[in-house]
Amino acid sequence: MATNTQDLLEQSLRLPQAKLQKYQLLPEAIQLYLLALKQKDMQLNPQEIAHFWQQLPYWAFAWAGGRALATFVNENPQHVKNKRVLDFGCGSGIVAIAAAKAGAKEVWVADLDQNALTAVQLNAQLNNVQIKAVENNLWPEVDILLASDVLYDISSSDDLKTLMLTIPNWLLAERRFVKPSFVQLQCLQEHITSTLPAIDDFDQNLSIEIYSRA
Q1: Is residue 144 within 8 Å of 28, Cβ to Cβ?
Q2: What are the backbone dihedrals phi and psi of residue 24, each rounded to the nearest 5 degrees, phi first?
Q3: 3-state secondary structure of 27
Q4: Which of 82, 130, 129, 91 has its CA nearest to residue 110?
């Protein structure tokens, strides 16, 4: 089953000789299937580069914000233990998996990309945890919202705003200059981390802040 799912996801990468490779992430203590390129400097022609960034498989990266939030949850499990959790804009599922491993009672994920929801199940299986997918915007009742690296995309802002104003507790991981202005924030911690896989110097050594409701 895992092999078939991996094959289908690899077909959607749309990059020459691109594969999914198993990564062991530290300090997150999580395994993920992430993008692997034969040539890490991406020696593509301009048309290929433009197509890549337009069709970027966000779920095939462990983004800096997600890594920071997963590390925070791993080190501070009391925020999610025995709670119902929603990971909004889940991507690879790194934060959801961290919550499940930290003892969350129930973990839900939501993402606009169906491939992301498929990738989360593949990665959840890899880490021996159970995760449920939100379907048709039927938001479950949860105790805490987790979100990271989502405010770059204006299309996600309305849903995120609604959820942050509805769900009593949440943790948000973003760079300082893209944090939301519609709620009062409290910075709990700062992390310096990088996106994986590393492509040139893209998203390397970023300062990510973990916020909660003030």
Answers
A1: no
A2: -100, 110
A3: coil
A4: 91
Domains of the chain (ranges, CATH numbers): 2-213 (3.40.50.150)
Between CA 157 and CA 205 the distance in angstroms is 25
Q: Which amino acid is at 66?
A: G
Contact 25, 196 (CB under 8 A): yes
Contacts of 8 (CB under 8 A, 6+ apart): 118
CA distances from 6 to 12, 34, 109, 118 (A): 10, 10, 19, 9
At 112-156, the pLDDT tens digits run: 999 999 999 999 999 999 999 999 889 999 999 999 988 766 556
Contact 35, 61 (CB under 8 A): yes
DSSP tag of 141: P
pTM of the model: 0.90
Alpha helices in the chain (DSSP H): 2-11, 46-54, 64-75, 94-101, 114-126, 157-166
